[in-house]
User: Which sequence fits this backbone?
């Protein structure tokens, strides 16, 4: 054998959340009755007017390549949305790139910010794909462990402790997957302060921005004092508009960085699908406000149902999520060796699929993530099965 190096892809593992979703589909195809609370995927269908707009685009032959940055009318709508909803000033011609998924958006945003050996601070628990993306780009994801005992609060001390001369950026996700936490003003100040002190870029993943509860307001880092000019905002249509299969997102940031980001888009996917962009344009219209409000009200009812039902199970403690559609209960008092062991046991014993906390980093070990983007019937049945399985467990 020669001395060939391993492919870059060999340095990362599979996406555990995608793998679980695949497994659920496999089990269902075999006729197994599984209740899926793993992957975060809305169970609603995409709003009618969005489907109609994409369908009309197809019918009209709008089936060719578009500019890499996205169709101008969508870039303009995104700029208007960013200004109205988020207080972000982004020029549609230079500061925005429409991407096939927020996932790809985050990947190319990172590519525009880091190079080999650069470090990105990743407060954890963190969504499963950030660290592998950073690794694929030759960078290093540096875990900033947050503490479950203080609600995973992000502080300047915790961020500063992880800064080295190679630190290039801080990646923040709010509302957060998997904790359900939303950034407070003090936390945003902490991010801004550390970024300013060490001249770091900020990557803000705001994909759950519309899904929030109890009247909370969403805080966009790009509009926060001190973050302006150093923040790339990543967002997408999957969660807010129940458009996971459409694969559409966007990145907005300073023109000088976006000039680099768009080159990566040009060389990888070229552009997002043309007719999908027309659908996204409809999603950003006034007509969607009611649909989003209804879906969020439904998530809120499910959140209450799930948190209430889990709270009745001895040994399980669960904070109220502030946003997104996940709960992250602490299962440490149930007596399992690990969250992985608990999750495997739950599938085996009860046919309920949840995501082990450990996939989100060591700070989420002894927790499991349950998605409540599932119907109230499924949520109720899943918690009943969980309670019964625990109550009838041998040698707990
Ligand atoms: N960020 C977070 C925090 C997510 O949970 C997801 C869900 N997959 C994404 C980004 C990517 O969303 P999508 O690729 O479906 O646009
Ligand atoms: N974002 C969702 C999750 O965390 C969907 C799966 C994925 O893309 O990771 O479960």
Assistant:
């Amino acid at each position: 054998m020669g001395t060939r190096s391993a492919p870059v892809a060999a340095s990362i593992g599979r996406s555990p959340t995608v793998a679980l979703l695949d497994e659920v589909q496999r089990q269902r195809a075999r006729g197994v009755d599984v209740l899926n609370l793993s992957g975060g995927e809305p169970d609603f269908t995409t709003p009618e007017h969005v489907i109609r707009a994409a369908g009309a685009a197809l019918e009209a032959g709008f089936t060719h390549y578009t500019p890499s940055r996205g169709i101008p009318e969508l870039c303009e709508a995104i700029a208007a949305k960013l200004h109205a909803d988020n207080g972000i000033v982004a020029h549609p011609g230079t500061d925005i790139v429409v991407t096939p998924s927020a996932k790809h958006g985050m990947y190319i945003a990172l590519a525009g910010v880091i190079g080999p050996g650069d470090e990105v601070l990743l407060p954890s628990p963190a969504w499963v794909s950030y660290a592998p993306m950073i690794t694929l780009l030759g960078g290093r994801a540096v875990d900033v462990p947050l503490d479950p005992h203080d609600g995973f609060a992000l502080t300047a001390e915790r961020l500063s402790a992880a800064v080295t001369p190679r630190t290039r950026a801080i990646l923040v996700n709010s509302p957060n997957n998997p904790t359900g936490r939303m950034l407070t003003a003090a936390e945003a100040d902490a991010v801004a302060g550390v970024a300013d002190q060490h001249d770091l870029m900020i990557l803000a993943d705001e994909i759950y921005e519309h899904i929030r509860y109890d009247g909370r307001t969403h805080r966009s880092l790009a509009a926060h004092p001190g973050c302006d000019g150093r923040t790339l905002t990543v967002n997408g249509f999957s969660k807010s508009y129940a458009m996971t299969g459409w694969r559409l997102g966007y990145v907005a940031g300073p023109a000088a960085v976006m000039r680099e980001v768009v080159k990566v888009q040009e060389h990888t996917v070229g552009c997002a699908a043309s007719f999908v962009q027309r659908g996204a344009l409809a999603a950003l219209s006034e007509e969607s406000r009611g649909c989003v409000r209804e879906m969020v009200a439904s998530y809120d009812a499910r959140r209450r149902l799930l948190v209430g039902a889990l709270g009745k199970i001895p040994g399980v403690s669960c904070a109220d999520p502030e946003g997104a559609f996940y709960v992250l209960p602490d299962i440490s008092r149930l007596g399992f060796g690990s969250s992985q062991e608990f999750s495997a046991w739950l599938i085996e014993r009860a046919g309920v699929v949840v995501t082990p906390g450990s996939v989100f980093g060591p700070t989420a070990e002894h927790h499991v993530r349950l998605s409540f983007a599932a119907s109230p019937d499924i949520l109720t049945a899943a918690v009943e099965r969980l309670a019964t399985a625990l109550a009838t467990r041998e040698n707990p």
Notes: The chain has two domains: 7-46+289-390, 50-287. The first strand starts at residue 35 and ends at 36. Residues 50-287 form a domain with the Aspartate Aminotransferase; domain 2 fold (CATH 3.40.640.10).
